[in-house]
Amino acid sequence: MGITMQLKIMATRICRHTAVDSWQLFHSHLDEARRTKIENCLQKNQQQRMIVGDILLQYVLRHELHREENRRPSVLYSPLGKPSLRDWPDLAFNISHSGEWVAIVFASCEVGIDVEKQDSRIFKLEACILSPSEQREYRAISSREAFLCERWAMKESFVKLIGVGLGYPFAKVSFHEFSASEAVTFYEYKCYFCKTYLLETLSGNKPYHVAVCSETYNFPDELTILPFDNLIRWARGATKHG
């Protein structure tokens, strides 16, 4: 894809008290096909996360990466759901959302991202998430809930990168840590790098884990937090100048 750029990772926390007119503003930036797909989702919270993901995609393309074409980005999907940008083949991107957070990553190589809220219910997924070597590591530590949630996010981001669909058996993937927040895995004779970040919750309790997986090691030290009000102001300005 040409010159390798540092991954751009951005997250925004949806404001619970966002006014109806702001959601209508966001909605006006979506094309008809995307509106229909979102409206077919029955859960209001999920609809909102999907809308914010689309607006965040447009914001980063135009405001951060200066792709200034006056049209909405055209997103193509592989048969297993991996997204790509029709008009900018030099850019790869991926979006994830969970609870109150929506996150996006851009890169000049294949990339995947996942956001997961730490929750004790994850314990029942232990056998599905961890490889045999990871299970041995898991039994030797005390912070098991955080470890499981982090590995879940890492593996979701990995399968989103390679585009095999989320039905891929996570237990066949084994990550090997080389720092507190960085790890590597191997797939079809190639290594893939992963870095994890933490996001706070409004209640200040258990955090969200963000994992980004990439073909190259080119991660920022921290992801960028975009205040939700900034996203609303940008959408309002884009409407005036669109």
TrEMBL record:
Coiled-coil boundaries: none
- Name of a matching Pfam family: AASDHPPT_N
Task: Please list the residue ranges annotated as the 4'-phosphopantetheinyl transferase N-terminal domain.
Answer: 21-105
Give yes or no: UniProt keyword Transferase: yes
For this protein, what is any one GO molecular function term?
A: transferase activity
Q: Which UniProt keywords apply?
A: Transferase
UniProt domain 4'-phosphopantetheinyl transferase: residue ranges: 111-213
Family note: Belongs to the P-Pant transferase superfamily. Gsp/Sfp/HetI/AcpT family.
Q: What is this protein called?
A: 4'-phosphopantetheinyl transferase superfamily protein
